[in-house]
Amino acid sequence: MNVAIGRRAHEDIVRHARETAPAECCGLLIGTGESIIEAARTNNLASDPDRFEMDPADHIRTRRQARTRRLDVLGFYHSHPRSPAVPSARDRAEAWYPDYLYLIVSLRTDPAEVRLYRLNADGFVELQLDLQGDEQRAMNGERKT
Known about the structure:
This protein has 145 residues and is of the alpha/beta class. 26% of the residues lie in helices and 37% in strands.
């Protein structure tokens, strides 16, 4: 299965990861259907720089804002500043939203490695992430407000 991501959302996620390194960053993936239109940053409440804990207030606020714009929260993103962009044992243990998307950005290489997964009953399944130009987003389902 392929999931589209707008270039701006992709760049925002990588920028967020670089700005917070060496700590992990986290946020929400906003869009429609199988198209990620934007990334919404959330505060990382974890005191350990090698993990993330999304601020529940940011999570709820972002969901409400997306809903008012007729968009959906499709999933979540976080960074692995020093390890590959694959779900860690902790990521698997703390993933609570089946059928949602989970994007991981790794900064251990340049350019950053960005990989996408969907959580199902058996665990994480990697998906193909298709980078699209922002002009293509509108043609592929972005709703304007």
